[in-house]
Amino acid sequence: MELQQRVLFTILVFGLACSVHGIVWYEPEQVHIAIGANPDEMVIVWNTVNDTGESKVLYGSGGKLNQTASGSRTKFVDGGEEKRSQFIHRVVLQGLSEKTEYAYIVGSSLAWSNSFSFKTWPRGEKWSPRIALFGDMGNENAQSLPRLQVETMQGMYDAILHVGDFAYDMDEDNARVGDNFMRQIEPMASKIPYLTCPGNHEQAYNFSNYRNRFWMPEDENKQMYYSFTIGPVRFLSLATELIFFPQYGLVPIVEQYKWLKRTLAEANKPENRAKHPWIVAFGHRPMYCNNDDVDDCTHHESLVRVGIPILHLLGWEKLFMEYGVDLAVWAHEHSYERMWPVYDRQVMNASAQAPYTNPKAPVHIVTGSAGCREIHDNFTTNPQPWSAFRSLDYGYTRMHVINTTHLYLEQVSDDKGGLVIDKMTLIKERHGPHDPNPRDVTPKGDPLMKLWNTWGKYVNIDTYSKK
Ligand SMILES: [Fe+2]
């Protein structure tokens, strides 16, 4: 065969092969982990472009990959024009020992990932978790990410809580932005549990990128709210966004409220509160803030705080008070703010000298300054009395649950090279319900609220304002 004929033949064969088989991508990527339903479990999640026909994790302690676990995968089709698809694999490792370093690789007989590792937590409640908290971290301008990566590799954290708003936005460019974001967090999220709640930037196609990419404990149905424990803390991950996007359904808003009330009641049973005395709730949009935008938290009566306007149904603040939530962590505002203990817009400090020692109401912080393309949200020049500390620096929050009575928070400024710019120790010598009708609080309502207070007593309904 002439050389030209040979080249032509080769091109034809190659072209035919490509047209028959297409380009395949079996290589695992975007590896991240979350805790399972039981203390001896870890959930491993990753993506492949093509279906590998199996989902496997090889893992083991002592650097040996001598155990195998299998799981399943789902085909995720993005809602964008291209209808890009990929496969999201999920394997639950079971029977893990406590305080043990496990190496693992993920994949299938078609392709395997690099080697990763995680260390299991101590069993039980008597240990002191260290957790990184932040929200609003994007793909662009993720300023805090490198520092968080290094600190995670240095073993400074047992878990990360990402309090909503990822990637900006995961669905953009037919979900390629979501893929790139998940690749960027892989060094952290493959090493320690990366626990989440949804933000407004996840809302496209009924939160489909969020629901498909993350697998959270006790959230098999992808309702986007769930509860879990770390050491002596009961965490509640809440979906503030359900009430802001009612086009996706009204029933989930009511169902979440009922779940929250039920879960808080269960957490407050003496035997449960004895094991997990701290109750920490986290969700994306705050109840309180002092930013100069017109977001919900700047309103006199925010949706998250008091629920449906005028009727004040389905608000969460009274539940937090009744069931003694100790700390509420929020984001959405691209800034950091620490509040004094507050209820119904009134400061509830324990005392002037020690405001956070046995406070009479939950403490709120807003930590949404990890870094994203929307830069900062400035503060008002006239902050409300419940605002204790504010910063526009990019950064994140460290939580150290020292023991059953002391919970320490500090704010890291990435702008200032990792300097701690704020700190607070919440001391609770007795955990339990706060007084939901404290004498210090005079209900403050808008004119419509006053009307409801006058006439609402004739309606047999449990509202926020009926005290
Ligand atoms: Fe947000």
TrEMBL record:
<dbReference type="Pfam" id="PF00149">
    <property type="entry name" value="Metallophos"/>
</dbReference>
<dbReference type="Pfam" id="PF16656">
    <property type="entry name" value="Pur_ac_phosph_N"/>
</dbReference>
<dbReference type="InterPro" id="IPR004843">
    <property type="entry name" value="Calcineurin-like_PHP"/>
</dbReference>
<dbReference type="InterPro" id="IPR041792">
    <property type="entry name" value="MPP_PAP"/>
</dbReference>
<keyword id="KW-0378">Hydrolase</keyword>
<dbReference type="Pfam" id="PF14008">
    <property type="entry name" value="Metallophos_C"/>
</dbReference>
<dbReference type="InterPro" id="IPR015914">
    <property type="entry name" value="PAPs_N"/>
</dbReference>
<protein>
    <recommendedName>
        <fullName>Purple acid phosphatase</fullName>
        <ecNumber>3.1.3.2</ecNumber>
    </recommendedName>
</protein>
<feature type="signal peptide">
    <location>
        <begin position="1"/>
        <end position="22"/>
    </location>
</feature>
<comment type="similarity">
    <text>Belongs to the metallophosphoesterase superfamily. Purple acid phosphatase family.</text>
</comment>
<keyword id="KW-0325">Glycoprotein</keyword>
<keyword id="KW-0732">Signal</keyword>
<dbReference type="InterPro" id="IPR029052">
    <property type="entry name" value="Metallo-depent_PP-like"/>
</dbReference>
<dbReference type="GO" id="GO:0046872">
    <property type="term" value="F:metal ion binding"/>
</dbReference>
<feature type="domain" description="Calcineurin-like phosphoesterase">
    <location>
        <begin position="130"/>
        <end position="336"/>
    </location>
</feature>
<dbReference type="GO" id="GO:0003993">
    <property type="term" value="F:acid phosphatase activity"/>
</dbReference>
<dbReference type="InterPro" id="IPR008963">
    <property type="entry name" value="Purple_acid_Pase-like_N"/>
</dbReference>
<feature type="domain" description="Purple acid phosphatase N-terminal">
    <location>
        <begin position="28"/>
        <end position="120"/>
    </location>
</feature>
<dbReference type="InterPro" id="IPR025733">
    <property type="entry name" value="PAPs_C"/>
</dbReference>
<feature type="domain" description="Purple acid phosphatase C-terminal">
    <location>
        <begin position="361"/>
        <end position="422"/>
    </location>
</feature>
